[in-house]
Amino acid sequence: MNSSVLFGLTIVLLVFIDVKIAFAVGTGGNSTVRPQPKAGQCPRLLNVVPSHKGCVCDEDCPGNDKCCIFDCGAVCVPPAFSKAGVCPRRRWGSGMCAEFCSNDSDCPSSEKCCHNGCGHECIAPYTVKPGGCALPKGTPMCAEYCYHDGQCPEEQKCCRTTCGHACSEPCI
C-alpha cells in the first residue's frame, strides 16, 4: 500500500476513535442517552385506570402517559397539566369539604383546581403582573382594598400593607 493512503486511513481511524471517546466522556461512559421525562406532571390523585403497572420511568409508558407513584405502586397514567394563572387567596372561612377536582386538567376552560380551605374546586385564576411589592411601611390601612393584581389598575399590583392589602406601583 502507498504510504499516503496508509497515512490517510490512519487519520480517519484516529478521528473516529476521538469522536467515540468524546461521546463516551459526554455521556459519563454510558453510550446510551438518558430519556427525557415526558411533558406534564403526575396527577395528585389516581382517578383513571392505569395503562400499565410496574413502570420505572416515563419511557416505560405508552404514548404520552407518565410513570407516577401512588399507594398501589408505580403505574402509567395520563399526565396532568398546570394552567396559567394563580389560585386566588381565600377571602374568609373554609370552602366545601369536597374534592371537585384533583388537577387543573379536570377544570373547564381557564379555571384552575384550587384549595378552598377544606377541599378542592375549579376557580377562575388571576394573573400575576410583573414586578414585586415593596415592603409594607407604617401605612395605617387596615382593610382589604384588593385580593389580587387583576383588581388593580394598569401596572399596579395588589400589595400587603401593615394590616391589609392595597394597589401599589410595582418595584422592578
How are the elements arranged and paired?
Elements: H1 3-26, E1 52-53, E2 66-70, E3 73-77, E4 112-115, E5 120-123, E6 157-161, E7 164-168
Antiparallel strand pairs: 1-3, 2-3, 4-5, 6-7
Task: Characterise the protein shown here.
Mean pLDDT is 79; it is low at 5-9, 12-17 and 19-27. This protein is elongated. The chain contains one helix and seven strands, in the order αβββββββ. It has 172 residues and is of the alpha+beta class. The strands form three sheets. The chain has a three-stranded antiparallel beta sheet with strand order 1-3-2, with no helix packed on it. Strands 4-5 form a two-stranded antiparallel sheet. InterPro entries: Elafin-like_sf, WAP_dom, WAP_four-disulfide_core. Keywords: Signal. Residues 1-24 form the signal peptide.
Number of strands: 7
The major pleated sheet works out as:
3 strands, antiparallel
What is the mean predicted local confidence, pLDDT?
Answer: 79
Low-pLDDT segments, ≥5 res: 5-9, 12-17, 19-27
Domain WAP: 35-79, 80-126, 127-171
Keywords: Signal
Signal peptide: 1-24
Organism: Umbra pygmaea
Which descriptors apply to this entry?
172 residues, alpha+beta, three-stranded antiparallel sheet, two-stranded antiparallel ribbon, 1 helix, 14% helix
